[in-house]
Amino acid sequence: MIKQKIIFLTGAGMSAESGVKTFRDADGLWEGHDVMTVATPEGWAANQALVLDFYNQRRRQLKEVEPNEGHQLIAELEKSYKVHVITQNVDNLHERAGSSTVLHLHGELTKVRSVANLGYVLDWTEDLTANDKDNNGHQLRPHIVWFGEDVPNLAYAVDLMNQADIVVIIGTSMQVYPAANLVHYAPIHAHVYYIDPKPARIYDLANPLTVIEKGASEGMRQLLEILKR
């Protein structure tokens, strides 16, 4: 039997139950910092030490949190479906829960890259300092897609969405572009499920839509019941 393909699109609310905070939480602040100072090329140019310290703290924080039930239920669906996760989150909680195919749109906390070579990417779990360089002596920076930068994995995400039989959106405000547009690339027959305690309106969606006004874990439990039917 050919397995149906489920494409998950996850955002900040997916990891909120695990204690991961994002700038979605309060007035454009991310852990008390203006996102423009820690998540833009201009912020990096103005104060590299601040940006390095900020992501070092986020990397340390990541070691103190665990995947929640929602992450685990997504991973378990691989037994019955072909599952791809497209996430706006930079944490590695989907992978730690057991998901085998995760595409990070906005980068990954546990990787760094060269400022001079987009393809020079290293796994990185400890602090990053001004002394850490690539093979040619160029500074390493967080492997994060900052505001104003291109989203390298966008074309691949669109291709995945084109193949969906089912789309599940979890914990995203549908306000961050281009990620918010991805659902519109799903085939017309694909049923869309939107899990969020405060769901936004999805405009101009031709697909069948079911909204589940719950958090990630509770919403995933309800989704599993729907899929079993």
Question: How do the strands and helices of this protein lay out in sequence?
Answer:
Blueprint: E1 5-10, H1 12-16, E2 29-30, E3 33-34, H2 35-38, H3 41-46, H4 48-62, H5 69-76, E4 82-87, H6 93-97, E5 102-104, E6 107-114, E7 121-123, E8 140-144, H7 154-162, E9 166-170, E10 191-195, E11 209-212, H8 216-228
Parallel strand pairs: 1-4, 1-9, 4-5, 9-10, 10-11
Antiparallel strand pairs: 2-3, 6-7, 6-8
Helix pairs in contact: 5-8
Word description of this protein:
There is one protein chain. The chain starts with a strand and ends with a helix. It is an alpha/beta fold and 229 residues long. The chain has two domains: 1-20 and 67-106 and 151-229, TPP-binding domain (Rossmann fold), CATH 3.40.50; 23-64 and 110-144, SIR2/SIRT2 'Small Domain' (2-Layer Sandwich), CATH 3.30.1600.10. The longest helix is centred in the first third of the chain and has 15 residues, at 48-62. The chain has a six-stranded parallel β-sheet with strand order 5-4-1-9-10-11, sandwiched between helices. A three-stranded antiparallel β-sheet has the order 7-6-8, with helices on one face. Strands 2-3 form a two-stranded antiparallel sheet. Helices cover 28% and strands 21% of the residues. The radius of gyration is 18 Å and the shape is elongated. The protein has helices spanning 12-16, 35-38, 41-46, 48-62, 69-76, 93-97, 154-162, 216-228, and strands at residues 5-10, 29-30, 33-34, 82-87, 102-104, 107-114, 121-123, 140-144, 166-170, 191-195, 209-212.
